Amino acid sequence: MRLLIAGGGTGGHVYPALAVARWLRANDPELEMSWLGGRRGLEASIVKGAGIPFRRLVLRSLRSTDRSIHLVLDPLRLVASVPQAAAILARERPAAILTTGGYVAIPVLLAARGLGIPAVLWEGNVVPGRSVRATARLASAVAVSFPETCAALAVAEDRCYRSGTPIRDFGWIDPVAARERFGVGPGERLLVVFGGSQAVRRFNAAVAEALPELVERVHLIQVTGDTGYAAALAGREALPPDRRERYRPYPFLGAEMADALAAADLIVGRAGSSTLAEATALGKPLVVVPYPHAAGHQRANARQLVEAGAGLLIDDEAFDAARLLEAAAILDDPARHARMAAASRELGRPGAAAAVGELVIAVAARRPLPDRDAIERRSREVAA
To answer: Which of 6, 108, 301, 313 is the most buried (most CB within 10 A)?
Structure first.
């Protein structure tokens, strides 16, 4: 069987598709798979590293929002990408397509509909983006992370499935061993702070000011980004020698990020769909600081978490050292922390990659779509 994945732009589009791709490969080692992305996004480096054949359309998967020539060129690139996508699909004839939305989905789903190739579209935000709203009706099935998203899309109810956000597998990680690797002893508490791939400066400033007090109370892992790493190292060296090992800054965490999340007692981060999905799959309380320039998508995502009792929301403009220290106080209240952890675990969908993968297999085989309740139950299952 041959499948095609279409997605690109930010990690929020790429990593969930990659999680589904890993599940599909694990269940069928003979499966042929390729990836179609765009230009300017993160997909080229990430997908090639995963060993999946990769090609790009002429469009840019991350569009410009500033006033530049690209405001004129981007629509032209989009139009040119439709026949380009159609030619690729006609030549390869995949049995099905998985797309995670974004700009790349538009030409691919238009071409797939014209060629009669079934497609599964996944959307991870409560409030779907314009590209998803425009193309959802072209998909054979739609998978979403939040039930409210189905109502926002013009698709039949029986084609919209709550799968959760596909994430990496955490089942192989021993949390106790992970804590030991980060130097966190029994009875000690670990706070993990990371801002995702966008706008970490506010996080770095808050940590820098609060650092002396934080390391008196907790161990701290911070992902600073490349630009903030030197200053974080300087802040670490300014700590008393017996406190330096309690603070571990990193410019970036790849595979070790899974260890850090599994080891954490409390996570401070943005409200991207993947961040929330990984934290809740692990049953971790969160302090969410929604990225303010995402059309309100992250704030809507965060509200779901807070209303369930699993998180605390702090607006980006209000996040500073004082608010960070207030958030860390969650770790000083065992009863509150336990309630938040239980609420987080209840929201978790550790089997989301399998749930979406089963939808892809069903449409590829031209079988009737699975029962919606069965897919939701699958999404709650921990990977074997």
So the answer is: 6
